[in-house]
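Q: I'm a student working through a structural biology exercise. My instructor gave each of us a protein and asked us to get a predicted structure, then write a short paragraph describing it. Mine is Putative 4-hydroxy-4-methyl-2-oxoglutarate aldolase. I'm not confident about reading structure output yet, so if you can add a plain explanation after the tokens, that would really help. Here is the sequence I was given:
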Amino acid sequence: MDNGIFLNYAQMEKTLTSAVLADILDEMGYRQQCMTHDIRPVIPFSKFAGRALTVLAADVYEIPSAPYQKELKAIDALQEGDVLVAATNGSTRSGFWGELLSTAAKIKGSRGAVIDGLIRDSMQIKQMEFPVFARGYSPYDSKGRTDVIACNVPVQCGGVLIRTGDLIFGDHDGVVVVPKEIIHETVTKASDKVSGENQMRKALENGMGIVEAFNKYGIL
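A: Happy to help. First, here is the predicted structure for Putative 4-hydroxy-4-methyl-2-oxoglutarate aldolase. I'll explain a few features afterward.
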């Protein structure tokens, strides 16, 4: 259960797109809900939808006596359907996320991870088919470079404010954040728009002109 409604994340991944969700959010007055374009899928054309679990990380300049502790606790806190969202302030000092964290998250039922910094072990992540979105890659370990300082707090990731419980949707075009208060309304309207797009596409394929089709369906 999410916010009193059941969210079928697999169905969302199958039927929705980031573009459709962004259009609906625009119509609803939420015009800054897409992460910056440089946060890209490690696996091209991979897709995920899930509930955000946030972590806040910061650059550090000494090796702690007990590294990784808050990061590991965040992974253990993941529930089925969660997407881990790590805000690193765009840090490029380390590959903050890697193969073993992906394995642990996947086993917990996580649907993906979004890192606004760098990741490593990209080949292994691709092989396990776990959706990870990030700015790029670095072989450096995060120990003594980047550390989690808080979990389940509001974070800014990819230019968007995200709270635990928000809906996170990612595909090859980008990552969209739907505030938790409007998830049901947004998803319902997005599903309706997909239906309208399908009808308009069929009309175009049957020879209807684009002007006539737009005037009829009001979709683009």
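A: Here are two points you could use in your paragraph. Residues 27 and 108 are 35 Å apart (CA to CA). DSSP finds seven helices and 13 strands in the chain. It's a good idea to check both against the output above yourself.
Q: Great, thank you!
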